[in-house]
From TrEMBL:
Annotated organism of origin: Qipengyuania qiaonensis
The family this protein is said to belong to: Belongs to the peptidase M16 family.
InterPro entries registered for this protein in UniProt: Metalloenz_LuxS/M16, Pept_M16_N, Peptidase_M16, Peptidase_M16_C
Peptidase M16 C-terminal domain residues: 232-416, 715-893
Highest taxon above the source species: Bacteria
Protein name: Insulinase family protein
Manganese in keyword set: no
Annotated ranges, domain Peptidase M16 N-terminal: 78-192
Segment forming the signal sequence: 1-27
A Pfam family recorded for this sequence: Peptidase_M16
Transmembrane segments: none
Keywords, ordered alphabetically: Hydrolase, Metalloprotease, Protease, Signal, Zinc
């Protein structure tokens, strides 16, 4: 079922991009008799055939005479939007050897030209309809499917008809000519090039090891350069005709419209579609098979050691079983939940050892079905040092204990409470589930060959399963998780000769002693036992802010709160706390601790409570505790619910009033940062992630990514010395938006944030501390150690900051969108030089410096001067020529629809109003919000371009392979001559 819990996946860097879901292991024995399917009642919807799961009555399912299936439903979140998904049951696993990459290439070609869309018309056409290309209009290809996605805003019957017509033309009648294949190929190869590098190599090799003998071993959606370059209109058409046919298609539509109208449009535009030739069955994806002579009691098969000097250590071993279709019944889903419970128990123990300073940074057990190719139990971990065997033994010891002895009832109850809060929250929030997610849920269910269930059904099944749980039953499922036909392993390491295949094979074959030390005593901790934040404070002022029904409350200690109690999003409450001065408060020498704060500050605890105790407090509750350092303030953020809001506010206030300083999270964060540092240099994108903010802020040391040497010198004691005064400093603003009782919440605020001691004032020099923009001049060159055909380039111009000109920042976003469209056209469509160039406008509103407009792209080294020339050319054109009406509308209409959709949610208003207790001008500027994005005249855009682009050249950065040089041509003529 779509809504049942899924195992956390740690193999994201190399497993195929497919939906991975756990199956109840005890129902998956390959030697078991074929399941007896439930006889479907007359009129059973196609997705529920063979299932006794109660149908979700809000969906209407249909099947056309040509075999195409559909699902439609009414959904008003967001209002006036319809989300459409067209799923083709064909991905990279359906390709022959000579066709590798064709499924993904077809995804591109359908957007290039089709029955109702000429070459190059797709993007502008969708933009005119209000859909942003890349977010509202997109597609993806996995090993098992290709899915086209459309989220159409401001939909009426005319727009719906036009959109269904265009989609049907793309899917039914694409123009697969030699010319189109030739034109699209450079873009696909650019995408392939941008993905390649050390992580891609390690991923491909790991896949070949884990899926040895199966199609998945050598069929990734991006394909091979050899097969892609050999593609022709005829060869791609052959793949298309084989798989793109109505019997292999499901169309899903969920939105703010009569579902019968949605169904009628599907029938109108897809009903007379007929496939070319006979229906072809899907190929056999193969089963994992142990090598001949493998010990049946310890079936360790293929092993691989992958040496990549720029990647951190990562060890995976998998117990593999053949994948088989399941009977998606209530009993099956109860088994799935028991499997998930068994995994959760082990993972909590593994995490406890890591927190305590174990031999590994993280470890995770997850059971997944991978691309309908194998049913697998993964064990993934990152050794802290080259002593991988010590880490492996530690982890296997924890698992051996779970296989030998049942868990305690206390442990089981704790995990069940965590599950229950998830399922209960889904029921509470059912009314506000967005249409795109609902449509994706159906697509995912079809992909994994399962049904869908309403949240109420999921909770009911969970409650019935919960009554059957015993420690012995959990033990039985745990043992099934770690039983299989073959064990395979892949170890990625930066060090040569650190491990061998034989050493890993021997280690996996060794018997390990069960280690019960990681079992966690589940002693309950109550909020009633925790000390108060202080004496409850007094309310100094209270009243409306003049927007909607939002109120501001000011306490005598200076804390200010903004509250909006509403029922627009049932079951959700968003809480944000802003305090202090953010990066302004950090000194140049504090960079390493600023970086560690994100990973370690929350984990260091509250008072005497460490991370484990906080976890116990959160059992059965919906809490969050995100932390971020902003330009002008630090922030805590959480999404909770009314039942847990009081405790959530207590935790945030207690972190400020009585922070804990457990050293272990700091030590662990140091280790994680050191392991990750070298991987930044593995590709140009990593260099940008590591250095771009630092460079764009004129090499301000506060924004530097700490080096391993800096991390070595950092200590938990100095971490406390830096952060303890920062937690006491500056004003506090609390924002609470969502479904809650306003009077009760104000009383809780009085007892928590109102009870805080008076805050220390931030020194004047801190508040005046800004950031500079680097001077333009010679191109700054950085070097990466990745593939020699990869580079990145950035051009940036300084802009503004602060609240005073906040309206201008909105106008700049419109200008940046125009810039982005033109750069995309120049670099992707015309030159095929870059797959995804992007232009962004950043305008810090909390501070008065640091704004910029930046264009960036990943591309080939030889195309770096082309990028510089095109970016400068576009900037100058925007400064000298007004934007045309059609181009303007293609930018403004998607922005209009984005604002209209986003403003129906609480988070939109929270983000707009945060900081308004410090600067009330933010409230006044709300009245201009929509107009600023949709009514800025083209002449004003030109004036902005003259202001920011016309007076200076952009600052340039090139990231190129080590040992190469980059041309620095900046004019279009020079670039053309150089290329």
């Amino acid at each position: 079922m779509t809504h049942f819990p899924r195992a956390v996946r740690r193999l994201a860097f190399f497993l195929p991009a497919a939906l991975l879901v756990p199956q109840p292991i005890l129902a998956q024995e390959p030697t078991a008799p074929a399941p007896q399917y439930v006889t479907p009642a007359e009129g059973t919807p196609w997705i529920y055939e063979g299932s006794d799961v109660p149908r979700d009555e809000e969906w209407t399912f249909g099947e056309l005479p040509n075999g195409l299936r559909y699902a439609v439903r009414n959904n008003g979140v967001p209002p006036d939007q319809v989300s459409v998904r067209v799923r083709i049951d064909a991905g990279s696993l359906h390709e022959e050897d000579s066709e590798r990459g064709y499924a993904h290439l077809l995804e591109h070609l359908l957007f290039r030209e089709s029955q109702y869309l000429k070459v190059g018309e797709a993007i502008p056409t969708w933009q005119r309809l209000g859909a942003t290309f890349g977010s509202d209009t997109n597609a993806h290809t996995s090993p098992t499917e290709t899915v086209f996605k459309l989220d159409l805003p401001n939909t009426d019957e005319t727009k719906l008809t036009e959109s269904m017509k265009l989609l049907s033309g793309m899917v039914r009648s694409p123009v697969l000519s030699d010319a189109n294949v030739k034109a699209e190929l450079p873009i696909v190869l650019a995408e392939k090039r941008e993905r390649s590098g050390a992580a891609e190599r390690a991923g491909n090799t790991s896949r070949e090891i884990l899926f040895s003998g199966q199609r998945l071993a050598d069929r990734v959606p991006i394909g091979t350069e050899e097969s892609l370059r050999a593609a022709t209109g005829k060869s791609v058409s052959a793949f298309y005709n084989r798989w793109y046919r109505p019997e292999n298609v499901v169309v899903v539509a969920a939105g703010d419209m009569d579902p019968m109208r949605l169904a009628a449009e599907i029938e109108k535009w897809f009903g007379d579609w007929q496939g070319a030739g006979p229906l072809v069955p899907a190929p056999d994806f193969g089963d994992p098979v142990a090598p001949a002579g493998t010990d049946a009691d310890n079936p360790v098969g293929e092993i691989g050691v992958i040496v990549e000097p720029d990647l951190p250590r990562s060890f995976t071993y998998a117990i593999m079983r053949p994948w088989r279709p399941v009977q998606d019944t209530i009993a099956y889903n109860e088994g799935l939940l028991r499997d998930a419970l068994a995994q959760a128990l082990i993972n909590r123990r593994l995490e406890a050892r890591a927190r305590a300073g174990g031999s590994y940074l993280y470890a995770q057990v997850s059971q997944d079905d991978v691309s309908r190719s194998a049913d697998m139990t993964f064990v993934n971990f990152a050794p802290l040092t080259g002593d991988w065997q010590a880490a492996l033994d530690d982890i296997r010891g924890v698992i051996a204990d779970a296989l030998a002895t049942p868990p305690s009832q206390e442990e089981i109850d704790r995990e069940l409470a965590e599950f229950e809060i998830v399922f209960t929250s889904q029921v509470e929030q059912r009314r506000v589930l967005p249409g795109p997610k609902l449509a994706d849920d159906i697509v995912n269910a079809v992909d994994i060959r399962e049904a869908v269930a309403a949240p109420e059904t999921v909770l009911t099944v969970f409650n019935s399963m919960k009554e059957t749980i015993t420690p012995e039953l959990v033990l039985e499922h745990t043992r099934a998780l770690f039983s299989g036909d073959v064990i395979r392993s892949a170890y990625v390491t930066p060090a040569q000769d650190e491990a061998s295949e034989q050493a890993i094979r021997s280690a996996l074959r060794e018997t390990v002693d069960a280690n019960a030390d990681a079992r966690i005593a589940a002693k309950a901790i109550s909020f009633d036992e925790l000390p108060p934040v202080g004496e409850p404070g007094e309310i100094a002022a209270q009243g409306p802010i003049g927007v909607l029904d939002i109120e501001k409350v000011e306490f005598a200690n200076g804390v200010k709160a903004i509250l909006w109690a509403n029922d627009a999003e049932p079951g959700r409450v968003s809480v944000k706390v802003r305090f202090g001065a953010g990066y302004r408060a950090l000194k140049p020498d504090d960079a390493v601790y600023a970086n560690l704060g994100y990973a370690a500050l929350i984990g260091s605890g509250i008072g005497e409570l460490g991370q484990e105790e906080l976890d116990r407090l959160s059992t059965g509750r919906k809490f969050g505790f995100d932390f971020e350092t902003g330009d002008g303030a630090f922030t805590f953020y959480a999404q909770t619910r009314e039942a847990d809001l009081d405790e959530q506010l207590y935790l945030f206030a207690a972190k400020l009033a009585m922070p804990g300083w457990d050293p272990n999270p700091v030590i662990r964060a140091k280790a994680a940062s050191k392991l990750a540092y070298e991987s930044y240099a593995a590709n140009p994108g990593g260099i940008l992630q590591r250095d771009l903010e630092f460079l764009l802020r004129d090499s301000d040391p506060r924004f530097r990514t700490p080096t391993p040497e800096m991390l070595d010198e950092a200590t938990p004691e100095e971490f406390r010395d830096v952060w303890e005064p920062l937690l006491k400093q500056g004003p506090v603003e609390v924002l609470v938006f969502g479904e809650f009782d306003k009077a009760a919440t104000i009383e809780t605020l009085r007892k928590t944030f109102g009870a805080l001691p008076q805050r220390d004032a931030a020194p004047a020099d801190v508040l005046d501390r800004g950031v500079d923009f680097p001077e333009a001049g010679e191109t700054v060159v950085s070097y990466h150690r990745g593939d020699t055909n990869q580079a990145a380039a950035v051009v940036a111009w300084p802009s503004g900051a602060g609240v005073e000109n906040l309206r201008e920042s909105r106008h700049l976003e419109v200008l940046a969108s125009v810039f982005n469209n033109r750069l995309m056209d120049a670099m992707r469509e015309h030159a095929g030089a870059s797959y995804s160039p992007v232009v962004r406008s950043d305008w810090p509103s909390d501070v008065n410096s640091g704004g910029r407009i930046a264009a960036l792209a990943q591309l080939r080294p030889e195309d770096v001067p082309v990028f510089f020339a095109e970016a400068e050319r576009i900037a100058k054109e925007l400064a000298t020529e007004p934007v045309g009406e059609d181009e303007y509308n293609r930018v403004v209409e998607p922005l209009r629809q984005y604002v209209s959709r986003a403003s129906t949610g609480n988070l939109f208003w929270l983000y707009q109003l945060e900081g308004s207790t410090v600067d009330a001008r933010r409230i006044e500027m709300l009245r201009y919000l929509l107009a600023d994005y949709t009514q800025v005249p083209p002449a004003e855009l030109q004036a902005l371009a003259q202001k920011y682009f016309g007076s200076r050249e952009g600052w340039r950065l090139a990231v190129i392979p080590q040992g190469q040089e980059v041309a620095t041509a900046t004019s279009a003529g020079e670039a053309a001559a150089g290329s």
